[in-house]
Amino acid sequence: MPTIHLLANTIANQIAAGEVIERPANVVKELLENSLDARASRINIQFSSGGTNLISISDNGIGMDAVDALQCFNTHATSKLQTFRDLQHLKSFGFRGEALPSIASVAQVTLVTRTQDQELGTRVEIDGELKPKQMPCACNVGTTIIVKHLFYNLPVRRTFLKSEYTENAHIIDCVRLYAVAYPQIQLELKQDASLIFSSSPCSTIEQRIHEIWPKQNAKTWIPLQYESKIGSLSGVISTPGAGETSSQAIRIFLNQRPIAQSAFSRAILEGYQGFIPPQLFPSVFLFLTLPPNTFDVNVHPMKKEVRFKQEAAVHSLIIDAIRKTLTDHQSASVSIQSVPMPPKPNAPEPSVDAKPKPTQSVDIARWVSNPVA
């Protein structure tokens, strides 16, 4: 009698959720990336209890019709690619079709969506292994996804979460990273009823950092712009001498996607050698832009680890860009400090024939009694 059988979709999705959804911040990341892929210009995010009780994300993107609204919860359902070759030219965040099925397998999910050409939208409700409920509804153009009671059917997963304070911090940091990567998008983040930040579209990265990162406001940023044959670098970096006690102040983006690449963090530190004390870390928002066919994000479901065709060349590119920017900044500062101050104009010498003007006498008693006179 055969003993090998196919797993039910629900079980397979719950297993996949172990890789895709480690903590509530991963849910926020996946849903936020969906909104960006949907070309939203306004995104509102709300969460409570570290994201375990509620995560809600609303956008004004292109939305979905009734068929896609249900299809998107099926495993490996995606609109981002058709063939494996498409991976070499991929510009979207999502493409694996694992996030929404994984989230829906470990939480109670409600999706409300409508496209521009529809009079009515679609509402889909999914509760674990129960059959999804779908119905028409009135709603705005775009998509809203509400995730409640994360890991309610896998209580052991909740025991591995950190404190509510820590999980809140992970969610806030996640949203801030994407807010900096997309300063042209209006973003609002709320924890319960408390507003964490609300940022209108910004024209520069520095402006967005100023609006959403209060602790960063005191910093003086140096703009970075560097071009090479393999790609380009842009962003802002901290001035020489200024440093942090944690490497978390280094933030790296690849084609606007936040990544965790330890080799590139080391390249940044190498670029700062001699500019800050060795026990400190610089504050860096570094945006690396490369052709999609020169790297592979399809390494892990969370897509934080990236493999590069020319990692050594990119490593050197980062070092050169950092050192040149810091050196140019120092040179400009020294030049400004060394410019002599213009001499004060000499007071004209009094003429020999000049006579002092007579001092006007004032009758104090008369002025006090009649000051207007």
Q: Top keywords for this entry?
A:
373 residues; 15 strands; eight-stranded mixed beta sheet; Ribosomal Protein S5, domain 2; disordered C terminus; globular; alpha+beta; five-stranded mixed beta sheet
Summarize the structure in words.
This protein is an alpha+beta fold. It folds into 2 domains: 9-215, Histidine kinase-like ATPase, C-terminal domain (Heat Shock Protein 90, 2-Layer Sandwich), CATH 3.30.565; 219-336, Ribosomal Protein S5, domain 2. The chain contains 10 helices and 15 strands. It has helices at residues 9-20, 24-37, 66-71, 99-105, 155-158, 164-181, 205-212, 262-271, 311-338, 364-369, and strands at 42-48, 54-59, 108-114, 121-127, 133-137, 142-148, 186-191, 194-199, 221-227, 232-238, 250-254, 257-259, 284-289, 295-296, 307-308.
CATH class term of the largest domain: Alpha Beta
From the structure provided, what is the oligomeric state, counting identical versus distinct chains? single chain
List segments where confidence is low: pLDDT < 50 over at least 5 consecutive residues. 356-373
Main β-sheet, in a few words? Answer: 8 strands, mixed
Integer average pLDDT: 84
Short description:
With 373 residues, the chain is α+β, with helices and mostly antiparallel strands.
Give the arrangement of secondary structure elements.
Elements: H1 9-20, H2 24-37, E1 42-48, E2 54-59, H3 66-71, H4 99-105, E3 108-114, E4 121-127, E5 133-137, E6 142-148, H5 155-158, H6 164-181, E7 186-191, E8 194-199, H7 205-212, E9 221-227, E10 232-238, E11 250-254, E12 257-259, H8 262-271, E13 284-289, E14 295-296, E15 307-308, H9 311-338, H10 364-369
Parallel strand pairs: 1-7, 11-13
Antiparallel strand pairs: 1-2, 2-6, 3-4, 3-6, 4-5, 7-8, 9-10, 10-13, 11-12, 14-15
Helix pairs in contact: 1-4, 2-6, 6-7, 8-9
